[in-house]
Amino acid sequence: MSRRLIVVTATLLLAAWLGTASARAATPPWSPLFRAINTVRRTHGLRPVVASPRLHWAARHHSADMLVHQYFSHTSPWGSTLYHRIVSSGFRTYGYWEAGETLAWGTGFDSTPAGVVQMWMHSPEHRAILLSPLFRFVGLGRAHGSFKAHANAVVWTADWGHR
Asked: What is the C-alpha to C-alpha distance for residues 132 and 103, in angstroms, rounded to an integer?
């Protein structure tokens, strides 16, 4: 009887641990920034933005490209722009559309969602995009590694869209 109880208990503990691990694995690395963005938007009386898989694709690739090639810009060294990334992502399907982009990188607090949103809110250009009622969709990209001679840096891209 006690042997069965030990096996059942061990099985339940393993199932709980696997459930927690799979929930963590299912949470995308950008979701804390997504929540922070929508918290700030709600605080300012704006509707939350909706996560766009196609914009996530564009943002993820741009963050990774900046990290791998060690640049920090809206335009890649070979000329790829936000327009090219949005068109390639398939976000633009037909009709009128607009897009914006905010970038951030840092280490420590400056690499966290709270630090990134704080930096954007203190920059007039980034704040205008973050708090624009025009943008209804956002895609977020996060790349982590050595960047510009800083270990454990995080490079963020937020691609904003309206259609």
From this structure: 16
161 touches 140 (CB < 8 A) = no
State the DSSP H helix or E strand holding residue 50, giving kind and residue range, or none if neither: strand 50-51
Question: How many Å apart are CA 10 and CA 22, to the nearest integer?
Answer: 18
For the whole model, what pTM was predicted? 0.82
* H or E element in which residue 98 lies: strand 98-106
Tell me the two tokens of residue 118. Answer: 């704080």
Say how far apart CA 99 and CA 49 lie, in whole Å. 13
The series of mean pLDDT values per 10 residues for the chain, 163 residues long, is 39 39 62 97 98 97 98 96 94 87 97 97 98 97 97 98 93
